[in-house]
Amino acid sequence: MQNEALTADDIDELARRSQAGDRDALEALLTAVRPRALNVCRGVLPHLPDAEDACQEALINISNKIGSWGGRGRFTTWMHVVAVNSARSTYRRMKNQAVASDPHATGRLEKPDPRTTSVIAGTRLDLLEAMETIERDHPQFVEPLLLRDVYGMSYEEIAEQVGAPLGTIKAQIHHGRKLVRPLLRGSE
Description:
The chain is mainly alpha-helical. The chain is built from eight helices and no strands. The chain folds into two domains: 9-101, Rna Polymerase Sigma Factor, Chain: A; 109-188, Arc Repressor Mutant, subunit A (Orthogonal Bundle).
């Protein structure tokens, strides 16, 4: 199969074959989804080398966890969540390394730094900081909120992906927004 010509059904079929142990299908699948995974990672990490590191982690996670794709929804929806989580994990690791190397850093800037704002995806690193903060006490809000407000997934896709009723997803996103709003820079 040519990667340019792969449909969503083709990708789902490659994923099913990969789950069954077909190594060639897994290689073709990873090649096919890499550009999409990189775009997702760039939405969280606007600096290309950081996004590429996160994408590599996402592809490793996809290959190791492909058995957990239930086949209920599109493989690309499942892959999107894996890539978001990989990018967030990479961000956390980078943040911890930065704090460890500069013990005098406050970790908070007065106003958004344009170097840390992704013009392409509109994602700001202060949003990631806010997500890290609310995740400690309200982890159920983070994934639906990121999938909706950062990646623009429909409520229905999110409900299918996380396995929760549509009304629950809408409520989680609404409450998550209330918690995040005061944590964002410029929301004074």
